[in-house]
Design goal:
- This protein is mostly helical.
- The longest helix is centred in the N-terminal third of the chain and has 22 residues.
- The chain is globular and about 55 Å long.
Length: 171
């Protein structure tokens, strides 16, 4: 059971999140901000070429994995189906398989933090606020248990901090 949940969360749902962030209209404004911070210092043709190559690579990877062959609506439908299945398994329990968190709980937490909390208004955020509220509650429970300083850590880190750290490792 744990393996099937991990496969569901880490495969179809993750790939739908990648699509949402990198290729969908929803992610466009976030991508522009991120690319400006990461590549804004590059010359005009180089930064646009780099962005094109990144998006092209992601599109090609999603196509080869099969999920990129679906329409956007079907892709989100597959992700919704899988998330609702995990929501049904969780039900009213504290964690997916009882009173103690397991690997599947960690994977679910990571997905919710990356999709709903980091991308407010995304199709995933809307789903968690409407049909799968127990998944959001579950993630908040994990956050309080393991990351009580989450908000403090998140507020300190920005893309420019990450970019500076990355560049310092390269040089």
């Amino acid at each position: 059971m744990i393996i099937s949940i991990n496969l569901s969360v880490f495969v179809s749902i993750h790939r739908a999140l990648v699509y949402c962030r990198w290729l969908s209209d929803y992610g466009e404004s976030n991508r522009k901000k991120m690319f400006a911070k990461l590549f804004g210092h590059l010359l005009f043709p180089l930064k646009h070429l780099l962005v094109y190559r990144i998006k092209s690579k992601i599109r090609k990877d999603l196509w080869s994995q099969g999920i990129g062959r679906h329409s956007e609506q079907d892709l989100y439908g597959i992700a919704e189906r899988d998330l609702l299945a995990v929501s049904d398994i969780l039900g009213e329990k504290k964690f997916l398989f009882g009173e103690k968190p397991c690997l599947a709980d960690a994977g679910l937490f990571a997905f919710i933090a990356a999709s709903a909390w980091d991308c407010p208004g995304s199709p995933f955020d809307i789903l968690l606020k409407s049909k799968a509220k127990n998944l959001d509650t579950h993630a908040r429970r994990i956050k309080e248990l393991y990351y009580p300083d989450w908000d403090k850590i998140i507020s300190r880190k920005s893309i420019s901090d990450w970019n500076t750290g990355l560049l310092s490792r390269i040089n």
